[in-house]
Design brief:
Blueprint lengths: L1 H6 L4 E4 L5 E2 L3 H12 L3 E7 L7 H23 L11 E4 H6 L9 H11 L5 E10 L9 H28 L3 H10 L4 H22 L3 H24 L12 H7 L1 H10 L20
Parallel strand pairs: 3-5
Antiparallel strand pairs: 1-4, 2-5, 3-4
Length: 286
C-alpha cells in the first residue's frame, strides 16, 4: 500500500490469492462494481471440486460453498452486505487505506470486512465474479488450515460482536444489523454440534422433569437446520456431493470436536500458511 501511494494511487485495488483460477470477466466485474458503488466488492470465492470418491473432501467443499456462496448470495438478494472471504475482493483506494490490511490475524479477511462495516463501508457481493482456489492437494485442507480458519473465525466473532452491537446502539443500520447477525453464525460443523448438544440436553431434561418444551424447541431448530442444508444442496451442491453422502456430515462434525477443544485450551495465535497444491492459475489478460 505504501508503494502504491508513492507511485500513484489506483482507483481500485484488487486482492487475489496466487493459486486462484479466474472465470471470464472476474476482474472487470470486481473493479466495475467497486467503482460504481464506491464500496468494497467480494467475488464468489469457491473451492475446486475434490477428486471423485473423497467423501470428507466433498463435505469440506460443500461447507465452503454454503459459507462463501449461499450465505452471501442470500444477503445480496436482500440488498444487504456480505463478509469478506479472503480472495477476489476489490477495494476502492480510500477504503483500502482506511483499515489495517497487514494485521496478521488468523481470519484477517473477516476482520477487514468488519473493520470496514464499523466505519460504514459495507462490502457488497458480486456472484458473477467467480474465482476458484485449489485449497490443498486432493481438495482437503490440512489440519493447520482448518484450525486457522475456524479458530480465527470464532475469535474474530467474539472480539467484534460487542463492537458491532455498540455501533448499532449509536447508529442503527439495517446493513450493520445484517453483518452482526451473520457474524453470530458459527462454522457449519460447530453449529451442527451445538444444535445436537442442545437436543440431547433437552431430551435429558424432558426425561428427568417431564417438561418437553426445551426438547421441542431444540428439535424444531435441528429440523430447520437440516431443511436449510438440503435447500443449499438442492440449489448449489448437487455437482459437489451426492445427497446420500450428507449422512456422513454428523461424523465429520464429531471428528472436529478436538479442533474446537483446542480453541478453548490453547488456540492457535499465529498465522499459518496452508499447504496448497502447486498449479499455474488461469488468469485474465489485462
Amino acid at each position: 500500500m505504501t508503494f502504491l501511494a508513492q507511485t500513484g494511487a489506483p482507483e481500485v485495488v484488487i486482492f487475489l490469492d496466487a493459486d486462484c483460477q479466474l472465470k471470464d470477466g472476474c476482474i472487470h466485474r470486481l473493479a466495475l462494481g467497486s467503482i460504481q458503488s464506491g464500496r468494497p466488492v467480494q467475488g464468489a470465492y469457491l473451492m475446486a471440486q475434490p477428486d471423485a470418491g473423497k467423501k470428507k473432501a466433498a463435505l469440506v467443499c460443500f461447507a465452503w460453498t454454503v459459507k462463501d456462496l449461499v450465505r452471501p448470495l442470500g444477503w445480496h438478494q436482500l440488498g444487504l452486505p456480505c463478509q469478506i472471504a479472503g480472495s477476489g475482493i476489490a477495494f476502492p483506494w480510500k477504503a483500502a487505506c482506511a483499515v489495517d490490511l497487514a494485521n496478521g490475524n488468523l481470519a484477517e479477511d473477516l476482520k477487514h470486512g468488519l473493520d470496514l462495516a464499523l466505519i460504514g463501508r459495507f462490502p457488497l457481493f458480486c456472484p458473477d465474479a467467480e474465482l476458484i482456489s485449489d485449497v490443498a492437494p486432493g481438495g482437503q485442507p490440512s489440519a493447520s488450515q482448518r484450525a486457522r480458519w475456524e479458530h480465527g473465525t470464532i475469535a474474530v466473532a467474539l472480539e467484534y460482536l460487542p463492537r458491532l452491537l455498540g455501533r448499532m446502539m449509536k447508529a442503527p443500520s439495517l446493513s450493520l444489523l445484517a453483518m452482526t447477525l451473520d457474524i453470530c453464525v458459527p462454522p457449519l460443523a460447530l453449529l451442527a454440534l451445538l444444535l445436537g448438544t442442545s437436543l440431547a440436553l433437552g431430551a435429558g431434561f424432558a426425561l428427568l422433569s417431564g417438561i418437553v418444551l426445551p426438547m421441542g424447541l431444540s428439535a424444531a431448530l435441528c429440523t430447520l437446520f437440516f431443511a436449510t442444508i438440503c435447500l443449499a444442496w438442492l440449489g448449489h451442491g448437487r455437482d459437489i456431493i451426492p445427497l446420500s453422502w450428507l449422512v456422513f456430515a454428523p461424523f465429520y462434525a464429531l471428528a472436529k470436536i478436538p479442533l474446537y477443544g483446542r480453541f478453548l485450551l490453547g488456540r492457535r495465535s499465529g498465522w499459518v500458511r496452508g499447504d496448497r497444491q502447486a498449479a499455474i492459475p488461469q488468469t485474465e489478460k489485462p
